[in-house]
Amino acid sequence: MTSRSVTIVGAGQSGLQLAIGLLEQGFSVTVVSDRTGDEIAAGRVSSSQCMFDEALTHERRLGLDFWGEVCPDVDGISVAVPLPPQDGGNGGFAINWAARLERSAQSVDQRVKMPRFIEEFISRGGEFVVHTATVDDLERYSTESDLVIVAAGKGEIAKLFCRDAERSVLDGPQRALALTYVHGMRAREDFSTVGFNMLPGIGEYFSFPALTTSGPCDIMVFEAAIGGPMDRWTPGISAEQHLETSLGVLRDFLPWEAERCESVSLTDDLGVLAGRLTPTVRRPVATLLSGTPVLGMADVVVLNDPLTGQGSNNASKCAASYLDSIVARGDRAFDAEFQQSTFEKYWEYAQYVTAFTNSMLAPPPPHVLELLGAAGSAPELASRFVEGFNNPTTLFDWFTDPDEARKVLDTSYASSR
């Protein structure tokens, strides 16, 4: 058993998962949060958080699978690209297929999950402090703990972590984002999916079943091209206006999805969210005025657009990677070199998630549309793409490189003859 101590600022997926993992390894762990569990439960939704099997496995290993019997399964992924109007649109599809995941995904509202994780952390011996941490507090934590980790992606302390210009290829928001949590969406007839709809030049829309504070629900996620015809959510509108805006977008651009939503209602007035973010990779080690390094994690240092649904998956995998590195360090100092190498180990994976997500934000190149089109008649190809959401490294290089894509397409076409 170790007597080493760690302070983690932030009580989200990454911070709490890492904290509980460290407790299991004998560390003394303090988590600092700006909200209590009850305040999180009573607050606004913060994400869509569809987690795939590899990320969920990290939770299971720590005994954190509390919703397996009550959370609706997400059994697969469906992809739809409508025909443009000049090619017979208004209901016709250029691409329209669905494929099952090898193991189901799951989305638990963070207003449900984080309070339960906080309870578990405290019950296992962790110290939970409710306080809005400042940079001065980080100085104090660094004298009281062997390692300080920042897992809170907003506020004053997040600004300590500078943008990495070499790894950040985008310099502004790429989409206007909107989340809408609803009851009453008609289920798909075959199996539940992340229903991914691409409207080239306009935006994207996807939905999937989830568990929220009032029970099973569906989450609608809109990704509107900024300034385009889907970019309709204005600041200050009511929750009902947000819902009507969401339904109006479906009626205008995705009538097949609007049909599933004829009887929907909001889960609650705080079940909506709209905004924009700039995908950014930041330098993972910040140096305090005292010269002490602190380590950033998850969204603090690698923030991706939600388009590929990787945020909570990244958070879980970052926590698992950091846990391995911290435990393997033994009794050696958690110095700046260690902190940088800890991030680099995680970046070996996260770089592929970032590249995949950024590529999906760009207009789809011909080889991507051809791959997605061919998947409709090639089940092995469809499954290969779908499993890429579980582990995006498996999409490289065949999904991102036109030459490699051609090899896969040739094989798919040959096997379908």
Which homologous superfamily in CATH is the superfamily of the largest domain?
Answer: FAD/NAD(P)-binding domain
Give the low-pLDDT segments: none
Topology order in helix (H) and strand (E) letters: EHEHEHEEHEHEEEEEHHEEEEEEHHHHH
The SS-based structural class is alpha/beta
What is the gyration radius calculated from CA atoms?
22 Å
Largest sheet: 9 strands, mixed
List how many beta strands DSSP finds.
Answer: 17
CATH class of the largest domain: Alpha Beta
Q: Predict the CATH topology of the largest domain.
A: FAD/NAD(P)-binding domain
Residue share in helices? 25-40%
Oligomer: single chain
Average pLDDT for all residues? 95
Query: Which CATH-level-2 architecture of the largest domain?
Result: 3-Layer(bba) Sandwich
Q: What's the helix count?
A: 12
Q: Any idea what the shape is?
A: globular
Q: How many angstroms separate the termini? A: 60 Å
Strand content: 15-25%
Q: Provide the domain count.
A: 3
